[in-house]
Design goal:
Layout lengths: L4 E5 L4 H12 L4 E5 L10 H4 L9 E4 L2 E4 L1 H12 L8 H31 L5 H18 L13 H11 L12 H11 L17
Parallel strand pairs: 1-2
Antiparallel strand pairs: 1-3, 3-4
Helix pairs in contact: 1-3, 1-6, 4-5, 4-6, 6-7
Bound molecules: glutathione.
């Protein structure tokens, strides 16, 4: 496997982590390029030439540049790790459903709650907590009797959900009442190649 893919990331970004995690789980060779978000590097022309939205993660695969964590997961799975994205139409739709879940309630719930505590983001903590609770109630119910979100093996859906769910307690969102979710996280952590995102104390950007 070549080392051609460059992953532009920030080590405390869950969106970045889901890409780094997938590259490691799927054995996709890559190099990491740190983007200093706290110094505003993502708003500079050099980075914005890669992603005009000014957000990590972004990958470069030769001449191909892809931004957005879920878009990157789809691209990498299709090109390098097809076992992680089913081609059966109905199963693929189920994967897409959970990518949307990751980009919606997971981003606006546990990820937003963590942005408030770790990065002092000016967001509504009560709203984030309510969105997180509803999202985790739904995820907990879906995982009843299931090992993986879709089908009988891990897919990019599991990877997309992992990072902000595992780190929800950093945003004061407890996983205590969610045994199915905690078992699912553990299953992902036990996969060969798993790499954790660094834990962060509250108030990083204080
Ligand atoms: N939909 C995007 C969201 C990416 C995102 O929110 N990235 C954050 C870091 S976790 C970022 O770069 N924030 C800087 C900013 O928006 O100015 C994805 O899935 O990649």
């Amino acid at each position: 496997m070549s080392n051609a893919i460059r992953i532009h990331h920030h080590p405390l970004s869950g969106h970045s982590h889901r890409v780094v995690l997938f590259a490691n789980l799927a054995g996709i060779g890559h190099t990491l390029v740190d983007v200093d978000l706290l110094a505003g590097e993502h708003k500079q022309p050099a980075f914005q030439s890669l992603n005009p939205f000014g957000q990590v993660p972004v990958i470069e695969d030769g001449e191909t540049v892809i931004a957005d964590s879920n878009a990157i997961l789809v691209y990498l799975a299709r090109k390098y790790a097809p076992d992680w994205l089913p081609t059966d139409f109905a199963l693929e739709a189920q994967v897409q459903r959970f990518l949307s879940f990751a980009a919606g309630p997971i981003a606006n719930g546990p990820a937003a709650a963590r942005l408030i505590t770790v990065f002092r983001a000016d967001l509504d903590a009560d709203h984030a907590a309510a969105v997180a609770a509803q999202a985790f109630d739904r995820l907990e119910a879906h995982l009843e009797g299931r090992d993986w979100l879709v089908g009988t093996r891990p897919s990019i859906a599991d990877v997309a959900i992992y990072s902000y769910t595992a780190h929800a307690p950093e945003g004061n969102v407890s996983l205590e009442g969610y045994p199915n979710i905690r078992a699912h996280l553990k299953r992902i952590e036990n996969l060969p190649g798993f790499v954790a995102m660094a834990a962060t104390p509250a108030g990083l950007a204080a």
